[in-house]
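Weekly modeling sync, notes
Attendees: S.R. (lead), two postdocs, one rotation student

Agenda item 3: backlog of single-chain predictions. S.R. asked that every request posted to the team notebook include the full sequence so nobody has to chase files. The rotation student volunteered to paste the first one in as an example of the format we agreed on. Action items at the bottom.

Example entry:
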Amino acid sequence: MVELVHSEFYTPAEVASHDAASDVWISFLGQVYDVTAVVRENEGTLTQPLVRAAGTDVSHWFDATTGDLKTRIDPEAGDRRYFLPMGRFVGVPESGEPAKPGEGGAWWRDGTGRVGKLSTSVRRIKLLNTLTQDEHELEVPSEETIQEILVRYLPFNAHAASYAWKCMGRQLDKDRTLQDNGILDERELYAKANLPDDFFVPLIHVYYTDDLTVA
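Predicted structure, as returned to the notebook:
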């Protein structure tokens, strides 16, 4: 039986699809967070900055060195406070004073709601089922292995694990990424030639081999 491997990477588009008050995802510093429970459990004014930011990347709120919120010298108080461009939100003390080193108690420091990583590079690929001739185009993180991409393809082909995956006649190693399988990302070359990113989208052929997987 083939063990299916779920990726921990998400595309910006996947994060952007969770942009409602009842479904709040954000990303920052390369991580993806589902803060829906934080919003639900703290209904009120302090959840509004999170709701307004739903589906977006808020890395500009954070200091990449400390992993905590950015700070600045408060012009009125004259001391250092959190810099909150969208206003105070859940987890930020009323004083606005930064946390002490090693101090927990805030969802972004405790990792509450973290669901995975944000892909640093997203690619488009086409998959052709040679048995049915159905073709689908997927947007996938470059960091994913073929095995992880396979999981994304399951809604279109429930028995995808029972297929051999090939590109340009070469069988793909499912434990390797597209790049490691020789399916190179050539978008920089296209840009230099003034061609669009999708000038050429790699086509992967999936060949039926057996029917041992369970739908």
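Discussion: group reviewed the output briefly. The first helix runs from residue 12 to 16.
Action items: rotation student to repeat for the remaining queue; S.R. to check formatting next week.
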